[in-house]
Design brief:
By secondary structure, this protein is mostly helical. Helices cover about 80% and strands about 0% of the residues.
Length: about 500
C-alpha cells in the first residue's frame, strides 16, 4: 500500500492539514515505519532472490546500484568490458555513466567527475545522453551541498544547465520525469512553493518506481524543512524512508533525517535506534559520504541516550534504595509487631495461667474453707456436748464422774489434727514451699522431713509468716507456744541462712 501524500495542495494547506492532527499523524507515520523496519530482512531477502534470476549485466547493475556497492561495481566493470568487446560507443558511454553514478553514490565525487568530463556523446542515443545529463546534474548538486563554499553557486548553475539539457531530451512534458526535473531545478533555485507543487503533480502519475518515490518524498521533506515546516518535513521523510526500505535502498538519507528530527523532539531511544540502522545501511552499501554524515550525528545521539540511561539508572538506584529502606522499615515494623503479638500472647497466657491459678486457689479456698467450717462446727458441737454433760452431772451432783470428764477430751490429739489440716491446706497452696525455703538456707542446714511429715515446727512458723501472720504473739496463739519459743525458733532458723533478716523475709514473701 502506497503511503498517503497531498497531491496538488499548496504547502500552507498541507501544513494546515497535518497540524490539525499532528499527534495522531506523527504516531501513525512512526507506526508505519516501525512496521517496515521490522520486515527489512525479509524484504532484502526477497530482493536477493529476485536478483538471483537475472543474468543481464545491466539488470544486475540496476538492482545493486543502490543496494550493494561492491556488487554493483562488479557488474559495472562487466558492462565496461562487454562494451569494449562490442566496439559500441553508446554501450561504452552508458557503462561509464553508470560507473560514475556508482562513484557518486559511494561518495567518490572526483572520480565520478573525471569520468563524466571526458566522455564523447556524439554517437550516443537519447536515453544514454539523458542518463548522462541527470547523473552529471546530481553530481554538481551534491558537490554544491557537500562543499558549502564560494564554489556552490557555480556548481548549482552548472547543475541547472545539465538539468535543462535533460529536460530538452524529453519527448513530451506530460511525464513524471518532466515534473520531477523541473521541480528539482526549482528546489535548487529556492523556488520552494512551485517545486513542491511540481513534486506533488509528479506523484499523480502511475508506475513511478519505489526508488523514485523515495527520492521525491525526500526532496519534498527538504523543501518543508527549509520553509520551517518541521512536522510536514518529518512526515515526508518517514514516507521516503518507508519507500527506501521497500526498495532495499541502502544508499539513502531519509532515515538519517528522521532520526535527527526525533533527536530534536527528545525521542532519544527511537532516534538512536534509527541512526544505528542508517549506519548499518551505509556500512552495508559502503557509502563514504553517508557514513561521514552519520558519524557527525551518531555520537551525539548515542551520547544523549547514554546520559538519559544514566539518569534512568540513577533514578532506579534511588528508587531501589527507597524500596530497600521501605522494605527494611517494613521488616522492622513486622518484627516489632511480631514481638508485640508474642508479648500479647505471652501476657494472655500469663493471664490465663493466673486465672487458672486463681481458679484453683478459689477451689482450694472453698475446699479448705468448707473443711475449716466443718472442723470448727465439729469442735463447737463437741464443746457444746461437753458443756451439757458438765451441767447435767453438776445438777445431778455426780462429782466423781465430773472429775473424770477432762480425761475424755484429748486436746493434744486435737492440736495434732489441726496442725495436719493446716499443713495440707498450706502445701496445697504453696506446693514447693519446703524446697524453696530450704534454698534460703545453707546446704548443710536444710530441713529433712520425716516420712509422713508435711511441715515441722520451724517451717510451720514461717508458713504462717508467709500467709502474712508476722506478730509473734498471734503465731504463738495459733501454734499453742509461748512467744519466747516462737522467737527462739525464728532466731535459730535465721542463723542457718547467709541472708540478713530483711533479705530472708523478702525472699520468703517471694515464694
Amino acid at each position: 500500500m502506497r503511503p498517503l501524500h497531498f497531491p496538488q495542495l499548496t504547502l500552507l494547506a498541507a501544513a494546515l492539514c497535518l497540524s490539525l492532527s499532528s499527534g495522531a499523524t506523527a504516531s501513525a507515520d512512526l507506526d508505519s515505519l516501525e512496521y517496515y523496519l521490522a520486515r527489512r530482512d525479509s524484504i532484502d531477502l526477497s530482493k536477493l532472490q529476485r536478483i538471483s534470476r537475472y543474468t543481464d549485466s545491466r539488470q544486475l547493475f540496476d538492482e545493486y546500484a543502490s543496494f550493494v556497492y561492491d556488487s554493483a561495481s562488479l557488474y559495472c566493470i562487466r558492462m565496461h568490458d562487454e562494451s569494449l568487446l562490442s566496439g559500441d560507443n553508446n554501450r561504452y558511454v552508458d557503462a561509464q555513466v553508470k560507473r560514475s553514478f556508482l562513484y557518486l553514490s559511494g561518495g567518490l565525487f572526483k572520480e565520478a567527475a573525471d569520468i563524466l568530463e571526458h566522455l564523447d556523446l556524439s554517437s550516443t542515443d537519447t536515453a544514454t545522453r539523458f542518463n548522462y545529463y541527470t547523473t552529471y546534474s546530481r553530481l554538481l548538486y551534491d558537490l554544491a551541498d557537500y562543499n558549502r563554499s564560494e564554489l556552490s553557486p557555480d556548481y548549482l548553475r552548472h547543475g541547472n544547465a545539465m538539468t535543462d539539457s535533460a529536460i530538452a531530451l524529453l519527448p513530451t512534458q506530460d511525464t513524471a520525469l518532466f515534473w520531477y526535473l523541473t521541480a528539482l531545478k526549482d528546489m535548487k533555485q529556492q523556488n520552494y512553493i512551485r517545486a513542491l507543487e511540481r513534486f506533488e503533480h509528479q506523484l499523480t502519475y502511475p508506475y513511478i518506481s519505489l526508488h523514485d518515490m523515495a527520492i521525491t518524498y525526500s526532496s519534498m521533506a527538504y523543501i518543508c524543512e527549509q520553509m520551517g515546516q518541521q512536522q510536514l518535513a518529518q512526515h515526508y521523510n518517514i514516507i521516503a524512508a518507508i519507500y527506501d526500505i521497500r526498495n532495499s535502498t541502502k544508499e539513502a538519507l531519509a532515515l538519517q533525517n528522521v532520526a535527527r528530527q526525533l533527536y530534536k523532539e527528545n525521542d532519544i531511544e527511537r532516534a538512536a535506534r534509527y541512526i544505528r540502522i542508517a549506519n548499518d545501511d551505509a556500512q552495508y552499501y559502503n557509502a563514504r559520504h553517508r557514513k561521514q554524515q552519520i558519524a557527525e550525528i551518531l555520537p551525539i545521539i548515542e551520547g544523549e541516550q547514554m546520559r538519559l540511561l544514566g539518569q534512568q539508572n540513577r533514578r532506579i538506584q534511588r528508587l531501589s534504595i527507597f524500596l530497600y529502606v521501605t522494605l527494611a522499615l517494613l521488616c522492622i515494623g513486622i518484627g516489632i509487631l511480631y514481638n508485640r503479638i508474642r508479648a500479647i500472647r505471652r501476657a494472655e497466657q500469663t493471664i490465663r495461667d493466673i486465672n487458672s491459678r486463681l481458679s484453683e486457689a478459689n477451689k482450694i479456698k472453698e475446699r479448705y474453707l468448707g473443711t475449716f467450717l466443718c472442723w470448727q462446727s465439729d469442735f463447737l458441737n463437741q464443746l457444746e456436748h461437753y458443756q451439757r454433760q458438765v451441767r447435767r452431772k453438776a445438777k445431778e451432783k455426780k462429782y466423781e464422774e465430773l472429775m473424770t470428764m477432762p480425761q475424755n477430751f484429748n486436746a493434744n490429739k486435737k492440736r495434732k489434727e489441726f496442725n495436719r489440716q493446716f499443713d495440707e491446706m498450706f502445701l496445697s497452696i504453696f506446693p514447693h514451699f519446703v524446697d524453696d525455703f530450704n534454698n534460703l538456707l545453707r546446704p548443710e542446714e536444710r530441713y529433712q522431713l520425716r516420712e509422713g511429715e508435711f511441715l515441722n515446727t520451724e517451717l510451720r512458723i514461717f508458713a504462717l509468716e508467709r500467709l502474712g501472720l508476722t506478730d509473734n504473739e498471734k503465731i504463738a496463739q495459733v501454734l499453742d507456744y509461748s512467744v519466747t519459743t516462737i522467737y527462739t525458733y525464728k532466731t535459730r532458723v535465721r542463723q542457718k541462712s547467709d541472708l540478713t533478716p530483711a533479705q530472708l523475709r523478702q525472699r520468703l514473701m517471694e515464694i
